[in-house]
Structure formats: structure tokens, C-alpha cells
């Protein structure tokens, strides 16, 4: 009986004669030498629903399907399902075994980000799970992605000024051997804009769009956007005013009536400081100093 053979089908990407293919491989049980296989290729057409693309009967322990941009497109999640039977008794089939879903196309890692207005840079990787194919120009083979951001505002309702910045507006995915789940990768850093406004947590999207490709497979592909939630941080304030009264970030109050140049504030974690210059503005009757200059780094 062939109820369960533990065929363990796996999908991997491969370039065949310069064209992008997916290869479904499965284990051949050593105790069953005369087996034939039926391989069913399908794609996720909607959540929980699959659409059959291609069916093949073979004696081999592998099957190929081409990413042709029509039946199998970039952006699809693809499965292969394998059933085995002996040539003597084709009516006795094993239980069908599914591969894991293989996402074919460009994607971001992580798929979403939660960051804060603290100046920190967050690395975002953009990768292709399938090989980059450029027939006739292998030495300069790449996919160029145009990156853009869209601010959705607070609670994804109120549009506003940009809340995030990227370290690059374009990245290139260069042709490289496939390793793990990546056949080409690039990185970009994402930083939240410190806007000194108490505008609540805001949501932005990062979008990537292939540019300059004329072939059907890549030109029609739009990767999934990255959702970035920016946590609003309160802004600190300090003051030096009139003859100078000083209020510190944490609310302490004192006076500095002296004349000269002083260090008003300095960060211990980054290159940030503010100098003030005070001059005699009280005349002969009172010893009073006033701010007459400021310098910030």
C-alpha cells in the first residue's frame, strides 16, 4: 500500500536557459523502485483558495514550472502537490503531499516595522526570491527598484508631512547565486523624522517599484508595501529668557546674571550642544545680563 510515502516536496528557484523556473523536488523511497509521480502545480488565487496551473506525470523525482508572467507570475505564492503510484497498479495512489508555499518575487524583510522618533536607523532588506534573468547582458544584470514613502497619518486616516526618511531612493538587486531564500538582496535604512510635534503614533508605507524593465515578468510586478508605525516621543524644552532666567529640560529654574559665553546644554550621547553669549544690558543702576547671541551644534 502507498498511503503515505513521506515524499516531502520542496520548491526551489532555478535559471534554465536564461529563464526563471521553479523546481519541485521530492524524495524517492528506496524500497519502491518502480514509482511514477503526478505533480500538480498551483497558485494561491485568494486567501485559502488555490488555482491549478499545470499537471505533469513523470518518472523523475523532480518537476519544472516556468515563471512565464502569464500562468505563474511574480507575486504569486506557489505550491506543488505530489502523488505517487506503481506502474503496475496505477489505481493505488499515495496520499497527495503538499510543498510549503513558495513566494516568488521581491519582498521586504522585516515585512513591517515599529520604530520611534529617537534618531535610530533601522535596516530594511529588499530581496528577490527568484533569480534575476537578463538574457544577453549577464555582466550587468540587475533589477533597479524606485523606493517611495507615503504617510497615512494618525490611525491611518489623516495624511500629513513625511514621518520617515530612507537612506536611498533607489536600490539595485544584482544577479547572484541563490542562497537560502534570497537570489539577490540590497539594504536601505529607515529613520523616523523627529518633528517636535505631539502628533501621536503615525503609519507610513514604503513602496518599491521596478523601473527600466520591459519584459513582462518584472515590469508587471509590484512588491507588497512595508507598513511602518512611528511611535511619537515627547519633545523636551529648555529656556533662557530676559535677564537670563533659565528653565532646564526637567523643570529646574535658576538665574545667571553673569556676562560671558556659557554652555547652555550638551548631550552626553551625541554631538549636540548649545552655547549662549550674555552681555551687560542693565546699565549703571543694575547688574543685569541679557542673551545677545546663540550658537548650536
Automatic annotation (TrEMBL):
Membrane-spanning parts: none
Q: What's the short name of a Pfam family annotated to this entry?
A: Ig_VWDE
Span of domain VWFD = 236-297
Cellular component (GO) terms are: cell surface; extracellular region
Q: Among its keywords, does the record have Lyase?
A: no
User: From what superkingdom does this record's organism come?
Assistant: Eukaryota
Molecular function GO labels: signaling receptor binding
Name the keywords, alphabetized: Disulfide bond, Signal
Check the record and name the InterPro entries matching this protein: Dev_Signal_Modulators, Ig_VWDE, VWF_type-D
The protein's matches in PANTHER family, at most eight in alphabetical order, are given as: EGF-LIKE-DOMAIN, MULTIPLE 7, 8, VON WILLEBRAND FACTOR D AND EGF DOMAIN-CONTAINING PROTEIN
What this protein is called in its record is: VWDE protein
Encoding gene, per UniProt annotation: Vwde_5
